[in-house]
Specification:
By secondary structure, the chain is α/β, with parallel strands linked by helices. It is 42% helix and 20% strand.
Length: 329
């Protein structure tokens, strides 16, 4: 038998009452039933808890030890139970205050979503966690350590743990190339991938099939990338600024001094922004709201990119819905 809080309450009541008969009356039990319960507890604890006598019962040394712990634990747990009941009653009669524990991969959409949620729900609990790995974020969702994951996957691939989590598309963007502002191709409206065959490349790390899809796109136009530096976005920007590499970036990449972003002709690579949550978690209640704000944050980022806006206007057949999604993706 495992010792539980109710057993400590019984032992405490017996000590306070001073006799099994009076304790049985307080507990609403028959005395034989209380005696049998006490014997089971004594067997579980390895010795007698009370000495029986004509005047009633008194604790043994083991009983005193158990009572000392019970006097500490029972009031604390009882108070916790009362606070939990009070909390539940108050929540039932007051508006639900959302909680947004947001996990995301590095990019402008996470900051935009945080800003929109904080504005819409000033009293909400809001926290962030960033990771390079969509798979890690999916695991954190299943473990209940975050409420939402704002991440992305390459092309039409499936987000991780799709059988256990809900994933909804925020938007689908073309992948652009990031060039130093004095690069020979910086003045072009679009850049052919084959024109960059002699370049070295910089890209943010991540799991999924993007690296393989990039290599396949290069192979289709006749070359193999000389080198691909996988590093954080700030380092990618630096490598492009010093002329060490050209970079791959999402179309919503914000304007950056010393750099230009240009579409890749034919849109050989696309990136799907997705928002995920656990269907049985508390976050499911506000998932529609979170998704709407994520889509609005994407649109805000798109509107801040003149290059992306020009691409949209010149590619109406590819720019589908109001969230920047590509029809063919």
């Amino acid at each position: 038998m495992d010792l539980e809080l109710r057993h400590l309450k019984v032992i405490w009541t017996i000590a306070e009452a001073g006799s099994l008969s009076r304790a049985a009356s307080v507990l609403g039990l028959a005395q034989p039933a209380l005696s049998a319960q006490l014997k089971r507890m004594e067997r579980a604890l390895g010795g007698e808890l009370f000495v029986r006598g004509r005047a009633g019962v008194r604790p043994t040394e083991l009983g005193e030890l158990v009572l000392e712990r019970a006097r500490l634990l029972v009031p604390v747990v009882t108070e916790l139970q009362e606070e939990a009941r009070r909390f539940s009653r108050e929540r039932a009669t007051s508006p639900r205050v959302p909680r947004f524990r947001l996990g995301g991969t590095h990019g402008p959409l996470v900051g935009g979503l945080v800003d929109r949620l904080a504005t819409a729900y000033p009293s909400a609990t809001l926290s962030t966690l960033t990771s390079w790995s969509t798979e890690e974020l999916a695991e954190l969702l299943t473990e209940g350590r975050i409420d939402y994951a704002l991440s992305g996957v390459c092309g039409g691939s499936t987000p991780p743990l799709a059988h256990r989590l809900v994933w909804r598309e925020v938007a689908v963007d073309p992948v652009f190339v990031m060039l130093r502002e004095d690069h020979p191709l910086a003045g072009h409206e679009e850049v052919g991938l084959a024109e960059l065959a002699d370049e070295r490349w910089a890209n943010a790390p991540g799991d999924g099939c993007f690296a393989e899809c990039f290599a396949a796109a290069c192979a289709r136009v006749g070359f193999t990338p000389d080198a691909v530096y996988e590093t954080d976005p700030a380092s990618c920007v630096h490598l492009v600024q010093v002329g060490r590499a050209v970079g791959l970036c999402r179309a919503t990449f914000p304007p950056t001094p010393g750099l230009v972003i240009r579409p890749i002709s034919g849109t050989p690579l696309v990136w799907r922004h997705v928002l995920g949550w656990h269907p049985a978690g508390s976050a499911a209640e506000f998932s529609r709201t979170a998704l709407e704000h994520a889509r609005a944050a994407h649109e805000q980022a798109a509107l801040a990119s003149p290059t992306y806006l020009r691409w949209r206007r010149s590619h109406p057949e590819e720019h589908g819905d109001g969230h920047g999604a590509l029809r063919r993706a």
